[in-house]
Amino acid sequence: MWNNKLQTLMVGMIMAVGVSLSGCDNSQSDAQNQDASANTSEQASANDAPAKDSASGTADLDGATTAQATPVRYDVSSWSSGKVTPLSIDKLEEIKSTFGKVVSTDENSLDYASNAATKYRFMKADAPYLDLIDSEKYLELGWYYANPTDSDKEKELSQNHAKKAHKVARQLMGDEGGKMVGDMLNSQIIKNKVVGGQKVELAKCEFYSCMLVINKSEAPETNS
C-alpha cells in the first residue's frame, strides 16, 4: 500500500514538474517573442527617423539658400538712355568728378603693371570700394562687385558703383564703352581690344571685383 501511495505521489510530482517546466518554456518563448517584436519596432522607427530629418533639413537648407542668394540686377539699358559729355583720357579731374568726392588719396600706389601710380578712393575703408588709379601708362576703374549673398546695402552700393563706371566708360568710349561695361557685369572678360577708340587692356568682373584698365599710351590723340 505504501508502495502504491509512493508511486501515486511520485507520478503526481513528475506531472507537476512537467507542467511547471512547460509553463516556464512558454513564458520564456513569449518573452523572447515580445523582445524580438520590440527590437523590430525600434529598428523600424530608427530607420524612418533619419529619412524624415534629412528631408526636412534639405528643405530648410534649400529654402534658406534661395531666400539669401538673390542675383544682383544691373539696369544697363536705362543707364544708356541719357546723354553724356565726351571726355578724353587725360581729363582726370572731370573723370574723378563723375565718380564723386575723393575720400582718400594714395600717391604710393601701383597700377595694373606695377608701375608707380596714384589711387583715388571714393568710399570709406569699411565700405564697398570705388577706386580710380592713374599712372603714366594706365587709367584704371575699380569697384566692388556684389555677390548674390551680400546684404541689400552692399548690392545697392555695387549697383551705384557700376552705374558711375558705365557713365565714365561712355564719356571715354561712347556707347561702345557702355556696352562693354554691360558685358563685364554679365561675366564677360575683355582683353587687348580697341573699344570706342581706346585700347582696353583688361575689363572683367569676378571674385567681388570689377576692373577696367585702359592703356593711355594707345589712346588716340585729340585736339582738346
Structure, explained:
The structure is a single chain. This protein has 224 residues and is an alpha+beta fold. It is built from four helices and seven strands, in the order αααββββαβββ. The chain has a seven-stranded antiparallel sheet with strand order 1-2-3-4-7-6-5, with helices on one face. The protein is globular and about 45 Å long. The N and C termini lie far apart (148 Å). Residues 1-9, 16-24 and 40-67 have low confidence and may be disordered.
Descriptors:
seven-stranded antiparallel sheet; disordered N terminus; 224 residues; alpha+beta; single chain; 7 strands
Total strands: 7
Order of helices and strands: HHHEEEEHEEE
Strand order of the largest sheet: 1-2-3-4-7-6-5
Report the sheet-strand fraction: 15-25%
**What's the overall geometry?**
globular
Major sheet, described briefly? 7 strands, antiparallel
Instruction: Please report the distance between the alpha carbons of the first and last residues.
Output: 148 Å
Mean pLDDT over all positions: 80
Poorly predicted residue ranges: 1-9, 16-24, 40-67
Q: Compute the gyration radius: what is it?
A: 40 Å
Fraction of residues in H or I helices: 40-55%
Tally of separate helices? 4
Structural class call reads alpha+beta
